[in-house]
Amino acid sequence: MTRLLPYPLLSAALLLLWLLANQTVRPGQILLGAAVALVGGWALTALQPPKARLRRPAAALRLGGRVLVDIIRSNIAVGRIVLGLNGRRERRSGFIDIPLELRDQKGLAALACIITSTPGTLWVNFDPARGTLMIHVLDLIDEEEWARTIKGRYETLLLEIFQ
Amino acid sequence: MSAAAELPVWVAILTAALVLLGAALALVGSIGLLRLRGFYDRVHAPTLGATLGAGSIALASMIYFSALETRPVLHEALILIFVAVTTPVTLMILVRAALFRDRAENDDPLLRPGEGVARLDADARDPRETRG
Amino acid sequence: MSAAILSWSLWAAQIMLALGMSCAVFRMLRGPRAQDRVLGLDTLYINAMLLLLTVGMASGRTLYFEAALIIALLGFVGTVALAKFLLRGEVIE
């Protein structure tokens, strides 16, 4: 198992991508895709990435749903800011430091993708020595509330999934 | 568009609504590129088109071609996956480059007055660490 | 009926995306700094990719999907290379 399929999840994803790109489930293409997935898995052993396991798929699904909702909400919020529909309130943007408990590399990578792909927030830097994350926020009303949002909505679930 | 005339009306309306939503979001994001002041505000603008904009147009394309060819056409999901993974990477590298360039010119945005920086010790961070 | 709805909405969407592309081109030409220009390029290629998807729907052929995928790939590589150049290139003395 480990010799033949060193990264089973990655190989499965490669096979799925192959079938999507070819738009078919014909046996011939499945065979070809399986070959590509196997070779891809072997090729990746040369890079020796840390292994990922699908722990707690329920938590991962919940996180995905949350991110989807937040992306839709913040799309609307940023759209209103751009079009000047957010009233006469003075908008302030700025950088915030947020202390994190998350240390896992993959968890941090997932958090970076989540924060950056939500419009209105942007990952700037993570300081591993102090464990603080710096983000840039387009509409900064309350620093504490942003820190609570990031920690409460994403970090707890990511901790559950990755640590 | 000859084959499109035989599509059911609800498919046409759903596709049209999704395409218009996606295009409008991409347009709003691009307008934000013009209207927002300062680079660090403008970085937020393209994410509109890259997340929900691309999502709804790709979904519309999937629905439309699946109805047109009466089989599931899902390969637009490839574009969605790719854009979802790459846009954050691009923007993060770009912000780091901008921070690095600003600091090299002694114009650290974290130290600018009125930027609303909620930080304690600004000197603790070495700008060289942003070099990958 | 369906054909009319689709052709009008796709036409409107293409105009919106073209306007978005011109905003991005304006930011590319205007600057003021190099990072703004790279950001303009990033927006430009995403809008172009979406425009190709709508063109593909208007023509009823899936051929344009491959073009959109290639634009997404090359645009990503291009903007990352440029951003990396800004990070490494000129300002270090």
Automatic annotation (TrEMBL), chain A:
Instruction: Report the principal subcellular site.
Output: membrane
Pfam families cross-referenced by the UniProt entry: MNHE
Molecular function in Gene Ontology: monoatomic cation transmembrane transporter activity
InterPro entries according to UniProt: Cation_antiport_E
A GO CC term attached to the entry:
plasma membrane
Q: What keywords sit in the KW lines?
A: Cell membrane, Membrane, Transmembrane, Transmembrane helix
Membrane spanning residue stretches: 31-47
Species assigned in the record: Hansschlegelia beijingensis
Spell out the protein name for this chain: Multicomponent K+:H+ antiporter subunit E
Which cellular compartments is it found in? Cell membrane
What is the similarity comment for this entry? Answer: Belongs to the CPA3 antiporters (TC 2.A.63) subunit E family.
What membrane topology does the annotation report for this chain?
A: Multi-pass membrane protein
Automatic annotation (TrEMBL), chain B:
Question: Which is a Pfam family this sequence falls into?
Answer: PhaG_MnhG_YufB
Q: Where is this region: Disordered?
A: 106-132
Q: Which GO terms describe its molecular function?
A: sodium:proton antiporter activity
Q: Which domain of life is it from?
A: Bacteria
Keywords, sorted A to Z: Membrane, Transmembrane, Transmembrane helix
Chain segments annotated as transmembrane = 12-34, 46-65, 77-99
Biased composition annotated in UniProt, kind: Basic and acidic residues: 118-132
Tell me which InterPro entries the record gives. PhaG_MnhG_YufB
**Matching NCBIfam families, A to Z?**
CPA3_mnhG_phaG (TIGR01300)
This chain belongs to the protein called Multicomponent K+:H+ antiporter subunit G
Automatic annotation (TrEMBL), chain C:
Give GO MF terms, alphabetically: sodium:proton antiporter activity
* Compartmental location: Cell membrane
What is this protein's name?
Multicomponent K+:H+ antiporter subunit F
Q: Into which family does the record put it?
A: Belongs to the CPA3 antiporters (TC 2.A.63) subunit F family.
Q: Name one GO cellular component term.
A: plasma membrane
Q: Where are the transmembrane segments?
A: 6-26, 38-58, 64-87
In the bilayer, the protein is annotated as: Multi-pass membrane protein
| Predominant location category | membrane
Asked whether the UniProt record includes Membrane among its keywords, one would answer yes
Matching InterPro entries: MrpF/PhaF-like
UniProt keywords, alphabetically: Antiport, Cell membrane, Ion transport, Membrane, Transmembrane, Transmembrane helix, Transport
Q: Does the keyword Transmembrane helix apply?
A: yes
What superkingdom does the record give?
A: Bacteria
